[in-house]
Design a protein that fits this description.
six-stranded mixed beta sheet, 599 residues, 36% helix, alpha/beta, single chain, 22 helices
Length: 599
């Protein structure tokens, strides 16, 4: 029997520049083929070429056959008949893929009526049924909502519902979990499995996340510089990789189940935070804004960082991680709670003391391109903090080459501008700038989240070496728990602005006590097909999205999503509903903590 989808000798050029070269792929009925590789490898261009969705400056050559029917060179009318009917697409960014001025239900119904002769009422009923199938709460009401009223995870589930609408033969999923929290990612992948089961479709899953591929794919094709360099079953490619690039890629992936040995704290506390709170006004109106509520962004964060250690701050988007960082960096009196930095209490300092403290704490931002002035050569960027703190020309001339060398860059490139460097090199420039004034505490806000896995490994190795050589302390914010396992000494978990668990990283990751920590860890995919398939049976899927930070919640704010809450006795549930769990030191803020191994 011939393959359902057969790609042969596929070439894609953009304005004469080769993006895909000689790609051969086959997709059998009912299977999942994972297409992996780093940014620029040609994964998405290959997937989009299948349906003729590339922009006008793309030239496509080769063959794409669907059940023997050639799609390369097919007319727009024929492709329109196939798109959304026999072959459906789940795009990377669902907000851009949905039309913002039409309701979600109407857009799914439109996909149904485009290929089926049914009434508008029947199509809308089918849309509600599909939203219910992918786990959207109150589907009839949500069908009347607009895309911006859905969270990122709900939009992606609605996009999968639209892909299922006509029971396609093939679903092309292009990075469907990029930029989603690990808990929401687990929900979306579960929905994608449901879509495949309900429709019987074959799936081409494009992803840079090897853990996602390990858990979903039957076969894997690895792309590098526009070519497929290795393919085979998931077990073969992950367990016995043949191509050097595949081996390097797998070796660079941080694993949740492969910890390094954490270093015990070696010095005095450099940062001590107790009961930190921060609110923002919720405003409504355009010309005349009025306050209609309050956003409780940080609502009880406790943390300690000692000299020479790395403390990781983890939690879902909106949990208050970045707000906590910027509250600390303001070096001002906190709205609530207390902050001590190097033994000095914020809010009780003179201007001179604040300026001196600013030299001792520096930040490395998430997006290296956005944090570097594009009009300044990198030598001036690195020297800017030195000038701010009054360094003379001789000191600056000596320090800039030293710093560039220290972070693995060529000092001769000091006159180049940020756009002339790669993403990983730009992040090294940001690190050099932060180190220029010889700080004692580095605040790292998602410093490797925008980098490919091989580049990420190099930056993490650099950070570890600098910490050991310079005796630095790190406050490391990340949503990637595999990265945290491999760089942190201690970890602090926050949920809806409040610390819920903290302790040595090995203790928390191997024996988590809070149900939220357990769910976070169980949702992290492992780049190991056999282990990942075993873990799917014990994965903890949290219901829905995190609740709104615009409400003050009585009792435990996690209880609405807590898998433990439903199993408690009535008196125990009353306690969860009315009493706020207290957090003290390296501990857990849960009334009924239970150890559960999830890795």
């Amino acid at each position: 029997m011939s393959p359902l989808l057969e790609v042969t000798g596929l070439d894609v050029d953009f304005d004469g520049r080769a993006a895909v070269r000689g790609v051969d792929l086959t997709l059998e009925r009912g299977e999942v083929l994972g297409l992996v590789g780093e940014s620029g490898s040609g994964k998405s261009a290959t997937a989009l070429a299948v349906l003729g969705l590339l922009p006008g400056n793309a030239a496509v050559r080769g063959s794409v056959r669907l059940d023997g029917q050639e799609l390369v060179g097919a007319g727009e009318r024929e492709l329109t008949r196939i798109r959304g009917n026999r072959v459906a697409m789940v795009f990377q960014d669902p907000l851009s893929a949905f039309t913002p001025v039409y309701r979600i239900g109407d857009q799914i119904a439109e996909a149904v009526r485009a290929h089926q002769d049914v009434t508008r009422e029947a199509a809308l009923s089918r849309a509600v049924e599909l939203l219910d199938l992918v786990g959207i709460p109150e589907p009839a009401r949500r069908a009347r909502a607009f895309p911006h009223e859905f969270s990122g995870g709900m939009r992606q589930r609605a996009m999968i519902a639209m892909a299922m609408a006509n029971e396609p033969d093939v679903i092309l999923a292009d990075e469907p979990t990029t930029a989603l929290d690990v808990t929401i990612q687990a929900q979306v992948l579960d929905v994608l499995r449901t879509a495949q089961r309900e429709t019987g479709a074959a799936v081409l899953l494009v992803s840079h996340d090897l853990g996602v591929i390990a858990g979903m794919a039957d076969r894997v094709a690895v792309m590098y510089e526009g070519q497929v360099v290795e393919s085979g079953t998931a077990v073969e490619v992950f367990g016995r990789p043949k191509d050097p690039y595949t081996r390097r890629l797998l070796a660079a992936v941080p694993r949740l189940d492969d910890p390094r040995r954490p270093q015990p704290p070696v010095g005095d506390p450099v940062l001590k935070v107790r009961g930190l709170t921060r609110t923002f006004p919720l405003l409504k109106g355009t010309a005349f804004k009025r306050r209609v509520g309050t956003v409780y962004a940080v609502d009880g964060v406790d943390l300690d960082v000692r000299r020479g250690e790395t403390l990781a701050l983890v939690g879902e988007s909106g949990s208050g991680k970045s707000t906590t960082l910027f509250e600390l960096l303001e070096l001002a009196r906190p709205e609530g709670g207390s902050v001590e930095l190097f033994g000095q209490r914020l809010g009780e300092l003179t201007k001179q003391q604040v300026k001196a403290l600013r030299r001792r704490i520096q930040i490395v931002f998430q997006d290296p391109m956005a944090s570097l002035d594009p009009r300044m050569p990198v030598g001036d960027i690195v020297a800017e903090p030195l000038r701010t703190h009054g360094a003379d020309r001789a000191t600056i001339a000596r320090r800039v080459p030293e710093l560039l060398t220290q972070v693995g860059l060529d000092p001769a490139h000091a006159e180049r501008f940020p756009h002339e460097f790669s993403g990983g090199q730009r992040q090294r420039i940001g690190i050099a700038r932060a180190l220029s004034v010889e700080p004692e505490l580095l605040v790292l806000d998602e410093p490797v989240s925008a980098l490919d896995v091989s580049v990420q490994a190099g930056v993490l190795e650099l950070l570890q070496r600098l910490k050991e050589d310079l005796g630095l302390a790190y406050l490391f914010v990340s949503h990637d728990l595999s990265v945290v396992r491999n760089i942190a000494d201690r970890v602090s978990v926050v949920y809806l602005g409040r610390t819920v668990e903290a302790g040595p990283v090995d203790e928390v990751f191997e024996r988590p006590r809070h149900p939220y920590t357990q769910a976070l860890l169980s949702a992290v995919p492992l780049p190991d097909p056999e282990r990942e398939r075993e873990r799917q049976r014990t994965r903890i899927l949290l219901a829905g999205d995190p609740p709104s930070p615009t409400r003050r919640y009585d009792g435990c704010r996690f209880r609405a999503r807590c898998p433990l809450y439903a199993s408690l006795a009535e008196e125990e549930r009353k306690r969860c509903a009315h009493d706020v769990p207290e957090f003290e030191g390296d501990g857990v803020a849960c009334h009924f903590p239970r150890v559960r191994e999830v890795v």
